[in-house]
Protein backbone atom coordinates (compact mmCIF):
# COMPACT_ATOMS: atom_id res chain seq x y z
CA UNK A 1 0.00 0.00 0.00
CA UNK A 2 1.11 3.57 -0.67
CA UNK A 3 2.51 5.23 2.43
CA UNK A 4 4.40 2.11 3.57
CA UNK A 5 8.13 2.26 4.06
CA UNK A 6 9.94 3.38 0.93
CA UNK A 7 12.77 1.11 -0.11
CA UNK A 8 14.72 -0.05 -3.14
CA UNK A 9 16.13 -3.59 -2.99
CA UNK A 10 18.90 -4.80 -5.28
CA UNK A 11 18.45 -8.40 -6.36
CA UNK A 12 21.58 -10.45 -6.92
CA UNK A 13 22.06 -10.88 -10.70
CA UNK A 14 18.66 -9.26 -11.13
CA UNK A 15 16.64 -6.04 -11.09
CA UNK A 16 15.74 -3.34 -8.57
CA UNK A 17 12.63 -4.06 -6.51
CA UNK A 18 10.89 -0.81 -5.55
CA UNK A 19 8.56 -0.86 -2.56
CA UNK A 20 6.23 1.59 -0.85
CA UNK A 21 4.63 3.55 -3.66
CA UNK A 22 7.67 5.59 -4.72
CA UNK A 23 6.70 7.86 -7.65
CA UNK A 24 8.48 7.14 -10.96
CA UNK A 25 8.90 10.13 -13.26
CA UNK A 26 10.93 11.33 -16.22
CA UNK A 27 13.35 14.24 -15.92
CA UNK A 28 15.46 15.81 -18.63
CA UNK A 29 18.00 18.58 -18.83
CA UNK A 30 17.32 22.10 -19.99
CA UNK A 31 20.42 23.13 -21.94
CA UNK A 32 21.85 26.37 -23.31
CA UNK A 33 22.36 27.17 -26.98
CA UNK A 34 25.83 25.66 -26.49
CA UNK A 35 24.48 22.40 -25.09
CA UNK A 36 25.44 23.24 -21.51
CA UNK A 37 23.14 21.79 -18.83
CA UNK A 38 21.35 24.59 -16.97
CA UNK A 39 18.63 22.93 -14.89
CA UNK A 40 16.24 19.97 -14.78
CA UNK A 41 12.74 19.79 -16.24
CA UNK A 42 10.24 17.34 -14.81
CA UNK A 43 8.42 15.26 -17.38
CA UNK A 44 5.61 12.74 -17.23
CA UNK A 45 4.81 10.47 -14.32
CA UNK A 46 5.10 6.79 -15.25
CA UNK A 47 2.27 4.53 -14.04
CA UNK A 48 3.81 1.82 -11.88
CA UNK A 49 1.70 0.88 -8.85
CA UNK A 50 2.94 0.67 -5.26
CA UNK A 51 5.57 -2.02 -5.88
CA UNK A 52 7.38 -2.47 -9.18
CA UNK A 53 10.59 -3.88 -10.65
CA UNK A 54 13.12 -1.86 -12.67
CA UNK A 55 15.69 -3.17 -15.15
CA UNK A 56 19.30 -3.24 -13.98
CA UNK A 57 20.93 -5.20 -16.82
CA UNK A 58 20.19 -2.61 -19.51
CA UNK A 59 18.68 -5.14 -21.94
CA UNK A 60 14.99 -5.26 -21.04
CA UNK A 61 12.60 -4.89 -23.94
CA UNK A 62 10.25 -3.04 -21.61
CA UNK A 63 12.54 -0.36 -20.14
CA UNK A 64 12.57 1.00 -17.54
CA UNK A 65 10.79 -2.09 -16.18
CA UNK A 66 12.35 -5.53 -15.91
CA UNK A 67 11.10 -8.22 -18.31
CA UNK A 68 13.34 -11.05 -17.13
CA UNK A 69 16.02 -10.57 -19.80
CA UNK A 70 18.75 -10.59 -17.13
CA UNK A 71 18.25 -14.35 -16.82
CA UNK A 72 18.61 -15.13 -20.53
CA UNK A 73 21.77 -13.02 -20.94
CA UNK A 74 23.43 -14.27 -17.76
CA UNK A 75 23.66 -10.81 -16.23
CA UNK A 76 26.23 -10.79 -13.43
CA UNK A 77 25.37 -7.55 -11.66
CA UNK A 78 27.99 -8.07 -8.96
CA UNK A 79 27.98 -5.09 -6.63
CA UNK A 80 31.16 -3.22 -5.81
CA UNK A 81 32.20 -3.26 -2.16
CA UNK A 82 30.92 -0.14 -0.43
CA UNK A 83 34.05 1.89 0.30
CA UNK A 84 33.43 3.94 3.43
CA UNK A 85 31.12 6.98 3.37
CA UNK A 86 30.90 10.09 1.23
CA UNK A 87 32.52 12.12 4.03
CA UNK A 88 35.46 9.70 4.11
CA UNK A 89 35.91 9.54 0.34
CA UNK A 90 35.44 13.20 -0.51
CA UNK A 91 38.12 15.65 -1.58
CA UNK A 92 37.48 19.16 -0.27
CA UNK A 93 38.15 22.36 -2.19
CA UNK A 94 38.15 25.41 0.06
CA UNK A 95 36.76 28.71 -1.14
CA UNK A 96 35.51 31.87 0.48
CA UNK A 97 32.25 31.10 2.24
CA UNK A 98 32.02 27.67 0.63
CA UNK A 99 33.59 24.24 0.98
CA UNK A 100 33.19 22.09 -2.13
CA UNK A 101 33.10 18.34 -1.48
CA UNK A 102 33.83 16.00 -4.40
CA UNK A 103 33.64 12.23 -4.77
CA UNK A 104 34.51 11.24 -8.36
CA UNK A 105 33.47 7.61 -7.81
CA UNK A 106 29.81 8.73 -7.83
CA UNK A 107 29.90 10.95 -10.91
CA UNK A 108 27.33 10.15 -13.64
CA UNK A 109 28.68 12.89 -15.95
CA UNK A 110 25.49 14.95 -15.99
CA UNK A 111 27.62 18.02 -16.70
CA UNK A 112 26.15 20.62 -14.35
CA UNK A 113 29.55 21.26 -12.75
CA UNK A 114 30.95 23.21 -15.69
CA UNK A 115 30.33 25.21 -18.84
CA UNK A 116 32.30 26.46 -21.83
CA UNK A 117 34.20 28.94 -19.70
CA UNK A 118 34.83 27.41 -16.29
CA UNK A 119 33.82 24.84 -13.68
CA UNK A 120 33.08 24.70 -9.96
CA UNK A 121 36.66 23.79 -9.03
CA UNK A 122 38.14 26.79 -10.82
CA UNK A 123 35.32 29.01 -9.56
CA UNK A 124 36.20 28.18 -5.96
CA UNK A 125 39.23 30.42 -6.39
CA UNK A 126 36.92 33.38 -7.09
CA UNK A 127 34.24 32.56 -4.52
CA UNK A 128 34.89 35.79 -2.61
CA UNK A 129 32.56 37.22 -5.28
CA UNK A 130 29.00 36.57 -4.03
CA UNK A 131 27.68 36.04 -7.56
CA UNK A 132 30.30 33.39 -8.26
CA UNK A 133 29.61 31.67 -4.94
CA UNK A 134 25.87 31.61 -5.65
CA UNK A 135 26.49 30.08 -9.08
CA UNK A 136 28.69 27.36 -7.57
CA UNK A 137 25.95 26.48 -5.09
CA UNK A 138 23.30 26.32 -7.82
CA UNK A 139 25.48 24.11 -10.04
CA UNK A 140 26.26 21.70 -7.21
CA UNK A 141 22.61 21.45 -6.15
CA UNK A 142 21.71 20.24 -9.66
CA UNK A 143 24.21 17.36 -9.52
CA UNK A 144 21.90 14.30 -9.46
CA UNK A 145 24.38 11.78 -8.09
CA UNK A 146 25.53 13.76 -5.06
CA UNK A 147 29.13 13.43 -6.27
CA UNK A 148 29.33 17.13 -5.46
CA UNK A 149 28.12 18.72 -2.24
CA UNK A 150 28.96 21.86 -0.31
CA UNK A 151 28.92 23.48 3.08
CA UNK A 152 29.46 27.09 4.10
CA UNK A 153 32.11 26.46 6.74
CA UNK A 154 34.63 23.64 7.02
CA UNK A 155 32.94 21.73 9.85
CA UNK A 156 29.34 22.57 8.93
CA UNK A 157 26.82 20.01 7.71
CA UNK A 158 26.36 19.87 3.94
CA UNK A 159 23.58 22.04 2.55
CA UNK A 160 21.24 19.96 0.41
CA UNK A 161 18.42 21.00 -1.94
CA UNK A 162 14.89 20.02 -0.98
CA UNK A 163 14.07 17.05 -3.23
CA UNK A 164 10.99 14.82 -3.34
CA UNK A 165 11.02 11.13 -2.56
CA UNK A 166 10.96 9.78 -6.10
CA UNK A 167 12.87 7.91 -8.78
CA UNK A 168 13.57 9.89 -11.94
CA UNK A 169 14.38 8.27 -15.26
CA UNK A 170 17.08 10.32 -17.01
CA UNK A 171 17.32 10.06 -20.82
CA UNK A 172 19.70 7.25 -21.82
CA UNK A 173 21.15 7.47 -18.32
CA UNK A 174 20.84 6.50 -14.70
CA UNK A 175 17.99 6.22 -12.26
CA UNK A 176 18.07 9.36 -10.12
CA UNK A 177 16.88 8.50 -6.62
CA UNK A 178 16.09 11.48 -4.41
CA UNK A 179 14.71 12.28 -1.00
CA UNK A 180 16.78 9.93 1.14
CA UNK A 181 15.23 6.61 0.03
CA UNK A 182 17.02 3.59 1.57
CA UNK A 183 18.72 1.26 -0.91
CA UNK A 184 19.35 -2.31 0.23
CA UNK A 185 22.15 -4.28 -1.37
CA UNK A 186 21.59 -7.90 -2.34
CA UNK A 187 23.46 -8.99 0.82
CA UNK A 188 20.94 -7.12 2.98
CA UNK A 189 23.20 -4.21 3.91
CA UNK A 190 21.89 -0.68 3.43
CA UNK A 191 23.91 1.72 1.33
CA UNK A 192 24.72 5.07 2.88
CA UNK A 193 21.38 6.87 2.65
CA UNK A 194 21.70 10.25 0.97
CA UNK A 195 19.44 12.93 -0.46
CA UNK A 196 20.72 12.31 -3.99
CA UNK A 197 22.06 9.14 -5.58
CA UNK A 198 22.10 7.64 -9.07
CA UNK A 199 21.70 3.93 -9.79
CA UNK A 200 23.10 2.13 -12.83
CA UNK A 201 20.51 0.87 -15.33
CA UNK A 202 22.81 0.20 -18.30
CA UNK A 203 24.47 -2.81 -16.66
CA UNK A 204 28.01 -1.58 -17.32
CA UNK A 205 28.92 0.42 -14.20
CA UNK A 206 32.00 -0.74 -12.33
CA UNK A 207 30.53 0.72 -9.17
CA UNK A 208 27.22 -1.19 -9.10
CA UNK A 209 24.60 -0.60 -8.00
CA UNK A 210 25.67 3.03 -8.32
CA UNK A 211 26.16 4.75 -11.66
CA UNK A 212 29.70 5.69 -12.71
CA UNK A 213 28.87 7.25 -16.08
CA UNK A 214 29.47 4.07 -18.11
CA UNK A 215 26.16 4.54 -19.97
CA UNK A 216 27.86 7.31 -21.95
CA UNK A 217 30.84 5.10 -22.82
CA UNK A 218 28.69 2.26 -24.16
CA UNK A 219 26.07 4.46 -25.87
CA UNK A 220 23.21 3.15 -23.74
CA UNK A 221 19.73 3.95 -25.01
CA UNK A 222 16.57 3.66 -23.01
Summed up:
This protein has 222 residues and is of the alpha+beta class. The protein has five helices and twelve strands. It is 13% helix and 24% strand.
Write a concise keyword list for the protein shown above.
222 residues; alpha+beta; 5-stranded mixed β-sheet; 12 strands
What topology emerges from the helices and strands here?
Blueprint lengths: L6 E4 L5 E4 L4 E8 L5 E9 L6 E3 L14 H4 L13 H4 L1 E4 L4 E4 L17 H4 L6 H12 L6 E4 L14 E4 L5 E4 L4 E2 L11 E4 L14 H5 L4
Parallel strand pairs: 1-11, 3-9
Antiparallel strand pairs: 1-2, 2-5, 3-4, 6-7, 7-8, 9-10, 10-12
Helix content: 10-25%
Find the count of extended strands (DSSP E, 2+ residues).
Answer: 12
**What structural class is derived from the secondary structure elements?**
alpha+beta
Please count the helical segments.
5
Radius of gyration of CA atoms, rounded to a whole number: 18 Å
Enumerate the spans where pLDDT stays under 50 for 5 or more consecutive residues: none
Largest sheet: 5 strands, mixed
Beta-strand proportion: 15-25%
Across the major sheet, the strand order is 4-3-9-10-12
Mean pLDDT: 95
